[in-house]
Design brief:
elongated; 3 domains
């Protein structure tokens, strides 16, 4: 973040160390009150003070708490930031945005499947992200905003074909990403179900059922998934 000139506020553990010269000391400013404003517009009084390791640098350290006397562990935070100026009234609320950022990331992780597996190997994580993002991009390309950017119409499905697909009782008429995902899942269902039932058809051959699956899959293949022009 420093490389790209980005401003940040991050939390530190209480035992975080900072290099100082042997003659330098740690000093703390006086506690000051500030209003911690939550997303619900609720206001609580918190306390903040700056911790200075030897002398101020581009990195500044702050301690925030709900009780300046007891410093309860569950409501006391140590922050590091490269923001400059008189920020003692604002840095606490800036850090408070972390909760909502994490909440948003959790929703994204759950939606994209990043929370389904706990991988510790970077190579495995990279492979999983590649699969997830490829699937996300494939679904996103089916939205109208991408299709309207194309100068080529050969991959666009005819209105009559789309109307036929939309007769499925589970087809979703809305245009959001999850709605597109729902419809693409419906289109690939015959292939998925055929793969699942084929082992049983090898045990109990039912030619009309096999032929019916192949016919249904052939009909599904008439749907053109949109791929943008190169």
């Amino acid at each position: 973040m420093e490389k790209y000139g980005l401003k940040y506020v991050v939390a530190l553990r209480e035992n975080h160390g900072v290099w100082m010269l042997s003659h330098e000391k740690v000093t703390r400013t006086r506690w000051q009150k500030f209003d911690r404003i939550f997303s619900s517009n609720k206001i609580e009084v918190h306390y903040i003070r700056e911790i200075i390791f030897g002398h101020r640098t581009s990195l500044r350290y702050w301690e925030i708490t709900t009780d300046q006397a007891l410093l309860p562990p569950n409501s006391t935070w140590f922050l590091m930031t490269n923001k400059t100026g008189n920020i003692q009234k604002t840095v606490g609320n800036i850090y408070g945005l972390r909760t909502w950022i994490e909440y948003g990331f959790k929703q994204c992780k759950d939606e994209l499947g990043w929370a389904d597996y706990r991988l510790t190997s970077y190579e495995e994580i990279e492979k999983w992200w590649e699969i997830v993002m490829s699937a996300y991009m494939m679904v996103s390309f089916q939205s109208e905003v991408f299709q309207n950017l194309s100068s080529c119409s050969r991959m666009i499905n005819s209105p009559s074909l789309l109307l036929k697909f939309q007769e499925h009782p589970w087809w979703n008429q809305h245009k959001g990403w999850k709605n597109l995902l729902n419809n693409l899942r419906l289109i690939i269902q015959p292939m998925v179900f055929c793969c699942l039932i084929t082992p049983w058809l090898s045990v109990f051959p039912i030619p009309p059922l096999t032929q019916g699956f192949l016919r249904l899959i052939d009909l599904m293949n008439q749907f053109n998934a949109y791929v943008p022009d190169g």
